């Protein structure tokens, strides 16, 4: 068993053990990858204020996200095709999350279906929903999530159009993937991954094939996906989705205070400040930089969560101290999954938990709900004055 002390260790193993096409799919951002890079590097610009001689016993990272108890406010973000990083990847990640006591969010574009995950887990998970044109599919997706006892829906609003990732085009990573001699040769070197894939039937988009009208195989899937995303999306359409789902609702992909106010008006229970991990609008600011203005606009009226760029428990601590009530990790747990399956996701959560707990203590705080800007040293120009 390799010694894993940080998320970077998992990332190195993920790279070694998973086909290049799928590793690159996770470890990339759109166009120049500026936003992808800055999501992470902007966390490094915020410093922590060391305090001493303060009783640090009895610390707790336990909190709540949308009223649900969590052992730390760090959920697993929805990640498409998780089941290609490791066989049955969504089930493995959901199991690791439930054992750890944090929420797991299943992507609409997952490999394992809602029903697959529900049958193989005990605790309710959250369902991510893309804003698609197909009304029939949308209603059925919400109904299936309800039948599977999902305890929240997460509507992603930042993907009316797909951002371009150069590596995916070069690698033939599309839905479904286009296999070339080179990519097949690369896959054959990933023995552990290959054996896992041979041992499962779950290799296609489980929430779509057999559920969307006319989608029965890979080629009809490609046509459906190309047509599915709704470029005409507006807040009235999002209100229609609100009516289709009467449970807790989270709106994901907010980067501007005006959109945060719209999400509030729709009746969401929480918003996620997110730029999709730098995969959509390259050139957008990092989500941690976008957070303060959004907190000012809606922070006292709605729960504000954040993702994009979190690679450590210290990043989580900084986001919480800046006002977020919850955070999510995407690539950090995908690195764990690609490296070591379910045990790798657990290890990612353990690493982040320890970093969060120890850093919180060294800042002189004993629980995550007491965190505030006083533990941070934020550069004066961090929030920027944008013309
Ligand atoms: C490989 C990959 C696939 C993703 N697929 C989805 C998706 O299907 N739905 C969604 O709402 N967000 C998706 N996201 C965005 C994540 O939910 C999350 O916003 C992002 O990963 C956070 O950034 P981080 O990876 O730096 O933690 C995806 C992210 C990655 C890396």
TrEMBL record:
The family database entries (PANTHER family) matched by this protein are listed as: 2-HYDROXYACID OXIDASE 1 (PTHR10578:SF107), S -2-HYDROXY-ACID OXIDASE-RELATED (PTHR10578)
Q: Per UniProt, where does glyoxylate bind? A: 25, 165, 276, 279
* Family designation: Belongs to the FMN-dependent alpha-hydroxy acid dehydrogenase family.
Q: Which cofactor does it need?
A: FMN
- Does the UniProt entry include the keyword Cell membrane? no
Q: Which Pfam families match?
A: FMN_dh
Q: Which residues carry out catalysis?
A: 276
Official protein name in the record: L-lactate dehydrogenase
